[in-house]
Design goal:
Blueprint: E1 9-17, H1 27-38, E2 44-51, E3 54-60, H2 67-81, E4 87-88, E5 92-95, H3 101-109, H4 111-114, H5 129-132
Antiparallel strand pairs: 1-3, 1-4, 1-5, 2-3
Amino acid sequence: MTPIDRPRTWRFASHLRDTDLSLTHHIALLRDCYRATATEGPLTTRAMVVLPQSIHAVWQLPATVEPLPRWQRFTKTLMRHLPQPVALHPAWVAPVMSEDIPRTVADIHAQPVAWRLVEQAEDWPFSSVHRLGVAA
């Protein structure tokens, strides 16, 4: 796939492996790691949600940027700074076609509901649904 043909929007998910650590207790650290990753080059977050054991996101990247290494730098930076050693399952990355972006963003925002953490996506504090003003 040439850079011109490559999708520019990607869906990511990373899940903690066998730990009692909750990512939601480390939101400030997670935000710092995200900011560090975002300063590496152009990056637009279309959706992001942090659950106790996982992170889900939809990122828009330039066509010339390989998505998986960028996501891995973000998660590795986070893992290095957590107060205890944590392992991640391999990252899940999938391209999102233009016509699927709204549905994918809604799905990301609905993750806390799907995991029965809240009844409405807007009730989950660790979500870009608040910044975007979009109900899932």
